[in-house]
Recover the amino acids of this structure.
């Protein structure tokens, strides 16, 4: 049984002993620490009844218990009773109590007046501890008003003055307050250390209220730094310290739900969010209900139930108008395919973050908006938003976000054909990893995975292979089967390009099993298609055909135009290899239309190359001239080495069919140099169409 619960039971079971053996005020204070308000007030009432002198100190204790319990009218009466004391020191404490009561009700202006009065009276009475108490409360007001540096100055001066028991018991609150003031002043290391100390002080005296409060603060910090396991520990501890349903409990459940999402514990996230909704409905607290609905909407969206999530998120966003609520709503709108609404919602979030001076929320909203532009195919707009977000993250020294965002920018630049610029972005991402906290292996895995793909395309085989292996190991360590499936599939594709077919097949089969186990339909299609490519490379075209056809059937119902086009091209190439040319042509035409419509350079190059190959196989090499010329030119402009090599190889075959031997040899020589750079096995081939007749 926890200390606070044992204390409460002890006090209740030994009430008669308490009456005889210890002052009621002291016993009432200990009941207050345990948040047993009923017992605390019973003891303090008895203390009033037994008092033979000035009862003002008892009234002050009553006022604090009643204020913390939300019984404001009773607290006000107790404060007024204490103010009638003839003792100037007591009146100073009564002014502090009046300020605390006003602060609890959100009247910060009245709180300041009371604390100013308390400070004046304490100094007049030469009461050092009371002076420190009043100064500490005033610091709370300054911090609320945004003057963190002056709040920190006051607290540094005030804390050494606190020596009376009634002031020492507030040390946890005031030490933590100094920590928050320092953090807002940019002194994060010392600030976080002090919040940890505040948590320890609360634990030492068993002050349930502040133990819960600083546990929540520590949880918020851990969540903001993506230390979700630590955040869950702090929020779970805080949750155990609630005696009654309250808005604060709703808040804690809501945040715990979001932390569980970060840990991919979807069922637990939904459970906590639903509990938050249920409690807020019992309380009939509108704001708490909106907070809970926002958490429930986020959990539903993460569970793939975006249609159910939208009404909850719309309600939270409309009333709370908070950046996190708006971003969650926009994400659900993206999932539902309403990109226009999502852009408008993200723009609202950006405006709100700018008005609220919330730089990290602003950066997050801009990053998310960039993802919407990416989905719409507007890569330039996406890069603009990400660059703006990157500037903010750099100012805030948010190293993990910097590393991740450089990868997003690099991938977008690759799609725009800016290969050299993209590699610089990936190098910047790897450099940023040096400043990322060691515990954040998720970010490390994401960056290494993206870098592996980039280095593979540049022909840096050793770096790419190492990055793939490390990123897969991280996914296994995190238990993230989705990431493991994608990274294993990418590694298998990389091995396939290097001509390591059997290893590639093993990796791709593993990726396929993982994709199926997590229910990822798209990745199931992709890995199925990649296995088809592996059997194409082994010239086992009938088996390859089965895989490609199966992949096409899986991807066709999905809204994935890029992958649909790629799989159609791969299937068409297998049909060509089997001599089934009539079946290949419509697939290539559909892919080419898709590539042109989306302004997708890679798809367009590959489709034009396939058209050229089809024409050559049909015995119409002259008809291949136009698509191959376009494919080669576009691949050169977009710096896509692999697809340039493929187009040049087909061009070599086409020129040989036209008996233009020199042009055929020149095209193959250039293709071969590219294959060598990419460490692809074609570099060692001497194609049949270049063979000289005996």
């Amino acid at each position: 049984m926890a200390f606070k619960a044992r204390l409460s039971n002890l006090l209740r079971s030994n009430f008669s002993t308490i009456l005889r053996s210890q002052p009621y005020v002291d016993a009432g204070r200990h009941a207050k620490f345990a948040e047993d308000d009923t017992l605390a007030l019973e003891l303090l009432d008895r203390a009033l009844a037994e008092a033979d002198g000035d009862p003002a100190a008892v009234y002050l204790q009553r006022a604090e218990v009643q204020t913390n319990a939300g019984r404001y009218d009773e607290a006000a009466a107790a404060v007024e009773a204490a103010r009638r004391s003839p003792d100037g020191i007591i009146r100073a404490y009564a002014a502090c109590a009046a300020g605390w009561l006003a602060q609890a009700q959100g009247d910060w202006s009245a709180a300041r007046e009371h604390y100013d009065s308390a400070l004046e009276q304490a100094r007049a009475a030469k009461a050092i501890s009371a002076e420190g108490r009043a100064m500490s409360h005033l610091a709370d007001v300054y911090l609320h008003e945004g003057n963190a540096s002056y709040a920190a100055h006051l607290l540094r001066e005030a804390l050494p003055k606190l020596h009376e028991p009634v002031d020492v018991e507030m040390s946890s609150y005031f030490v933590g307050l100094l920590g928050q003031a320092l953090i807002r002043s940019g002194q994060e290391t010392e600030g976080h250390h002090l919040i940890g100390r505040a948590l320890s002080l609360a634990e030492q005296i068993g002050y349930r209220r502040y133990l819960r409060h600083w546990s929540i603060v520590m949880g918020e910090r851990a969540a903001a730094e993506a230390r979700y396991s630590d955040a869950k520990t702090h929020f779970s501890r805080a949750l155990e310290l609630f005696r009654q349903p309250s808005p604060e409990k709703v808040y804690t459940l809501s945040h715990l739900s979001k932390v569980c999402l970060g840990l991919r514990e979807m069922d637990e996230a939904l459970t906590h969010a639903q509990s938050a909704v249920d409690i807020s409905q019992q309380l009939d607290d509108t704001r708490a209900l909106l907070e809970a609905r926002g958490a429930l909407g986020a959990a539903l969206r993460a569970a793939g139930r975006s249609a159910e999530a939208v009404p909850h998120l719309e309600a939270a966003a409309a009333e709370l108008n908070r950046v996190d609520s708006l971003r969650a709503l926009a994400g659900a709108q993206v999932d539902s395919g309403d990109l226009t609404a999502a852009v408008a919602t993200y723009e609202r979030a950006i405006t709100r973050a700018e008005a609220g001076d919330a730089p990290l929320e602003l950066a997050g909203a801009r990053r998310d908006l960039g993802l919407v532009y990416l989905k719409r195919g507007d890569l330039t707009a996406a890069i603009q938003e990400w660059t703006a977000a990157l500037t903010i993250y750099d100012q805030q020294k948010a190293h993990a976000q910097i590393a991740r965002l450089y990868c997003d920018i690099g991938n977008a630049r690759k799609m725009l054909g800016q290969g050299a610029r993209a590699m610089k972005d990936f190098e910047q991402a790897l450099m940023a990893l040096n400043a990322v906290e060691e515990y954040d292996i998720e970010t490390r895995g994401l960056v290494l995975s993206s870098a592996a793909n980039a280095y593979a395309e540049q022909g840096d085989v050793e770096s790419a292979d190492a990055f793939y292996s490390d990123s897969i190991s991280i996914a296994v360590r995190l238990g993230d089967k989705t990431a493991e499936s994608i990274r294993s599939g990418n590694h298998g594709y990389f091995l396939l390009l290097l001509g390591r077919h059997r290893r590639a097949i093993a990796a791709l089969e593993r990726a396929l099993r993982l994709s199926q186990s997590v229910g990822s339909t798209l990745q199931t299609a992709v890995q199925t298609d990649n296995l088809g490519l592996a059997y194409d490379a082994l010239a086992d075209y009938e088996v390859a055909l089965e895989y490609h056809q199966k992949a096409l059937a899986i991807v066709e119902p999905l809204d994935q135009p890029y992958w649909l086009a790629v799989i159609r091209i791969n299937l068409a190439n297998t049909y060509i290899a089997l001599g089934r040319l009539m079946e290949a042509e419509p697939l290539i035409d559909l892919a080419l239309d898709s590539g042109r419509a989306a302004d997708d350079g890679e798809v367009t190059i590959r489709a034009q190359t396939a058209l050229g190959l089809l024409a050559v196989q049909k015995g119409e090499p002259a008809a291949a001239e136009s698509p191959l010329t376009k494919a080669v030119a576009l691949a050169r402009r977009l710096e896509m080495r692999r697809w340039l090599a493929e187009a040049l190889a087909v061009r070599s075959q086409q020129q040989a069919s036209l008996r233009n031997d020199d042009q055929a040899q020149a095209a193959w020589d250039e293709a071969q140099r590219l294959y060598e750079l990419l460490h692809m096995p074609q570099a060692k081939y001497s194609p049949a169409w270049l063979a000289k007749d005996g």
Observations:
- The mean pLDDT is 90.
- The longest helix spans residues 188-205.
